[in-house]
What we know:
Chain A is 19% helix and 33% strand. Chain A is of the alpha/beta class.
Amino acid sequence: MIDQVCKVLSINPLAKDIWEMTFSADQLVKIYKGAGQFIEILGDKTWDHPLRRPMSISGITDSTMSIIFKVMGQMTSRFSSLKVNDEINVLGPLGNTFSHPSENETAILIGGGVGLAPIMNFLNELKSINNHVLTIIGARTKDEHHLDHDPCNGMYLTTDDGSIGDHGTVMPTLDRIINTVKYPKLYACGPEPMLKAVQQFGLTHDIPTELSVESYMGCGVGLCQGCVLKREGPDFAEDSYQKKYTVVCKDGPVYNAKEIHFD
Amino acid sequence: MTDFHIKIGSVEFMNPVFVASGTFGYGVEIPDLLDISKIGAIVTKSISLMPREGNPPPRIVETSSGMINSIGLANIGVEKYIEEMLPQYAQISTPIIANIVGWTFDEYLEVLRKLEAVSSNIIGYEINISCPNVKKGGMEFGTDPETVEKLTSLLRKATNRLLIMKLSPNVADIASIALSAERGGADAVSAINTVVGMSIDPYSHQSNIFTTFGGLSGPAIKPIGLAAVQKVYRKVSIPIVGIGGISSGNDVVEYMLAGASAVQVGTATFRHPDAANQIFDQLKTYCQTQNIQQISDLTGKVKLHS
Lengths: 263, 306
Ligand SMILES: Cc1cc2nc3c(=O)[nH]c(=O)nc-3n(C[C@H](O)[C@H](O)[C@H](O)COP(=O)(O)OP(=O)(O)OC[C@H]3O[C@@H](n4cnc5c(N)ncnc54)[C@H](O)[C@@H]3O)c2cc1C
Ligand SMILES: Cc1cc2nc3c(=O)[nH]c(=O)nc-3n(C[C@H](O)[C@H](O)[C@H](O)COP(=O)(O)O)c2cc1C
């Protein structure tokens, strides 16, 4: 993990409130391990906003990295007004990676909202090694999508209002296409209700499932212990350590669905 | 060339910029980008008798120029610390100060004794007294002068190593607490721990921290820390380690002028893992341009308006 000043190479709106930014990252890419990893961007040189903002890596080349982000509050709003050649301080790459499906498994990738960022990265990673992949990307409405609904090529879009792709959440589509696959493995990133639904689906159908989770993050490198998430399991005694809670920035953000517990 | 050596008790440190407890783990699980050998000293996360899971999330939230945390002293416990962390210190030259926490006098003492029995790799102890005394209705150890003196002398009898009592700012009169630590035999005091704070989401109306109240840190508390150091400096003659919102070389200078002999960097490390080294580099530049021969000459030299 390193701390690099990076130059913005491109920044474009992809959909409503959603932006894609690519920046120079020659040092960062050298120690990149794979899709699922994230970076932390320092958005404020003053101390008005002390904490870095975690963002999944959505794409990578041999000298650049990309992120896809949604304007949520002050820092992401500031990121959206960055211009080409502006500099940002990036700490990364952080966290763990999705694990590849085994030879007979088919990956089904599921992204909700900007949860599509690490999913797109993983999709490209798997495609580059000729893996057969199915992808479902969900959003509330058409404006929030930037991809094409293309079931013939394994890309399914869903919208809550039916304005593009399948009508509904990602779940009915998953339920339908799961039967076309012999040995599925699920990978999901998105809002918590979606992760919960996918987790439930994976557990009840006994399908291996990996979830990339979010949590409010501080240092990003395991020092502050702020970003914990509850592990699945019996109610562990208070006098244990990291049995009850897992530190997302270090042990995650990708977890086996069996491992974690959403309240 | 400035001389950056400072002395606390009988221990000499190469430089006065340390990293603060709870912001640098145990000093060994540190990001590879970091040269820890240049850090003045590493203060470990608070170590308790039993392991602790810590508090439920949300544990942290950003605030203006700072953050609030309520980690709940999550730590591996002294046994595991001795087994897994201590041996690793043999590989690093940076002085290690073990921070100890307890909920009764006996707990503090037992942790210290266990470390004392094996602690060849530790240079000394910092005692976190911002912790509720379960035998005294949950009142923090650090809020009562008598309790602090008693705890300090108890620990003093059990070790000859460096003993630093870490003061809480959430008290009526921090100088009198420092005086109790001095009377109890402490080699030094460090100040300050985090300031009680709260944060609320105006839309969901929810507290942003699970435990409602947490500890405010970062530049937001620097003026509070400086005042605490100056007040303590006027009252005691043992050295003071200044803590609270340090993020630049100039901040170190201010703390030293207020009375600190050394300082600790906490929250700044969360922005830049290498913050302590960067701050020391800035301090070096300051001393060069200001022609400071001996860093310790700055201690307590603030000019007051008469
Ligand atoms: C591992 C990880 C990967 C992420 N990847 C992406 C991504 O690829 N694209 C994307 O758009 N978003 C991603 N996020 C979420 C993103 O970090 C937050 O949306 C962003 O920090 C909001 O900052 P803000 O200043 O705009 O919002 P604020 O005004 O600070 O707050 C708006 C919302 O963002 C949340 N938030 C604020 N600070 C943090 C923080 N330090 N950590 C986490 N959440 C926070 C708050 O809870 C609040 O709900 C990721 C989060 C994590 C933990
Ligand atoms: C996330 C976090 C965890 C902390 N944990 C401890 C701890 O375990 N023991 C302790 O004595 N102080 C702890 N502190 C307090 C710091 O050591 C320091 O006193 C305080 O943060 C003020 O310094 P700063 O403004 O530079 O961060 C913690 C602070 C933070 C932000």
